[in-house]
Amino acid sequence: MPRGRKPRTWVKMDCNGLLRGSINYLLELDGQAVWVKMIAFSEVCGGRPGFIEDNNESGLPHEYIAQELHCPLETLDCVIKVMKEDGALSINGTGSIELVNYKHYQFSEYDRQKPYREAKKKDYENQKYGHMVKK
To answer: In angstroms, rounded to a whole number, what is the distance separating the alpha carbons of residues 103 and 126?
Structure first.
């Protein structure tokens, strides 16, 4: 894991996508459960959120992933195949599994407004300590 990054203990879910999206007709219920667990697992394992990999950004054995997700290896392999064909995940040259839209779903209104909050805070600090404020 890259230094300084502490994985969150939560992830956001796209409720509409989860209930009405392609996951419902592409995967059986057990496959849907594995997909949801893969989303959570991608946050806590490895170095980058949205990737299932080790700390060196290399893929993990599918047997290990299946064990961590408490699912049969066949179910995991089926989910990976189906979601790869759907464009929801990709596997790079090192075997890392990337959940393609992970960052999109984890981006929040709080994240969107962060640059504005930081600029406002900087302006306030400049005024507080008598520095010139750029307009």
So the answer is: 33
Instruction: Decide if 49 contacts 56 (C-beta within 8 A).
Output: no
Reading the block at residue 125, the tokens are: 């600090």
Q: At what angle do helices 29-44 and 73-85 cross, to 10 degrees?
A: 90
Spatial contact of 11 and 107, defined as CB atoms under 8 Å apart: no
What is the C-alpha to C-alpha distance for residues 55 and 30, in angstroms, rounded to an integer? 28
Render pLDDT for 19-72 as a digit per residue (tens, 0 to 9).
Answer: 898 899 999 999 999 999 999 999 888 778 899 999 999 999 999 999 999 999
Instruction: Report how far apart the first and last C-alpha atoms of the chain are (Å, whole number).
Output: 40
Tokens read off for 53:
């990999």
CB atoms within 10 A of CB 68: 16
Strand-pair category, 51-52 with 97-99: antiparallel
Angle at 64 between CA 14 and CA 58, to 5 degrees: 80
Number of C-beta neighbours around residue 20 at 10 A: 10
